[in-house]
Specification:
The chain is α+β, with helices and mostly antiparallel strands. 62% of the residues lie in helices and 14% in strands.
């Protein structure tokens, strides 16, 4: 099943004292480029999270974030009472201010507020893991939906290429006759007598240089192979990329051998369609 590397997944958890939002975004990339942002007290789980994401998303530029919003009465900051009292006692020695004024001055001094370092709660993390798995399922579904859109676009463009190839096959005999006529005309214009047998041999040799039978067969096979891979159970953008390279090689060869304006126009259209396929394939997993 074709999958896109573009995707988005999100889930929200409501815990007793926290609201946790888990978000995953991905764009196309040659390899897995994973950026993880989490609160410091979840850092010890980062490697495990990375492995889980890598096993499911495989490739792409991925941004993974965990946002925590505290709710209720919990607070991670506390007043350092001992420090405040010590500051007030020292200030009394140098200032005749009242107790309230001394308190206002002391509370502005360093280390009067201390942050309580949160520790990882195992039960909390189990809930977060469930949320991560839900977010990954969401982004996987998103990627499959985007992949189906890409597949339909590929089917349309491959059909266009097949139709253009059929036109190339149809006009190929006319092209050969056109080449023969031009050669005969060139010989007649120089007004010299030629050995007809020798001329026929040279003509056959010359026309063999312009023969595109093998290119037509190979191009048809590559187009069929591309369609086969679109219906594969796994999504393999790199393999599709290799096939498009082969398709491009055959189209270029036909163009270089064409020597016929009508066929060259068809080749230009084929190249244009193939470029669109290559561009879209950059998004395929």
């Amino acid at each position: 099943m074709l999958q896109s590397m573009t995707g988005y997944g999100k889930t929200e958890l409501q815990l007793p004292t926290k609201k946790i939002t888990i978000e995953i975004k991905s764009l196309n990339s040659k390899n897995l480029d994973l950026n993880v942002r989490t609160p410091s007290y979840y850092k010890e789980k980062e490697m495990k999270v990375r492995k889980t994401i890598a096993s499911i998303l495989v490739r792409g530029k991925v941004d993974f974030s965990i946002f925590v919003e505290s709710i209720g009465e919990s607070s991670s900051s506390q007043i350092n009472k001992e420090t405040v009292v010590s500051y007030m006692n020292q200030l009394k020695e140098i200032s005749p201010a009242s107790e309230l004024e001394l308190l206002e001055m002391a509370i502005r001094l360093p280390e009067t507020i201390q942050s309580k370092r949160e520790s990882l709660d195992d039960n909390e993390w189990k809930e977060i893991e469930k949320g991560i798995n839900i977010a990954l399922k969401n982004i996987a579904t998103y990627r499959k939906d985007e992949g189906e859109v890409l597949k339909q676009d590929f089917l349309k463009r491959i059909t266009v290429l097949q139709n253009l190839l059929d036109q190339v096959i149809t006009i190929d005999p006319q092209r050969i006759e056109n080449v023969k006529e031009r050669l005969n005309k060139a010989i007649s214009e120089i007004e010299v007598k030629v050995d007809e047998n020798r001329f026929e041999q040279e003509l056959i040799y010359y026309l063999e240089k312009f023969d595109i039978t093998e290119e037509k067969v190979r191009l048809k096979n590559h187009l069929d192979y591309f369609l086969t891979e679109l219906n594969s159970e796994t999504s393999n953008g790199k393999k599709l990329g290799f096939i498009t390279q082969e398709i491009g090689r055959e189209i270029n060869t036909i163009g270089s051998k064409a020597n016929f304006a009508d066929m060259q126009k068809l080749v230009v259209q084929m190249k244009d369609e193939l470029e669109k396929i290559k561009e879209q394939n950059l998004n395929v997993l």
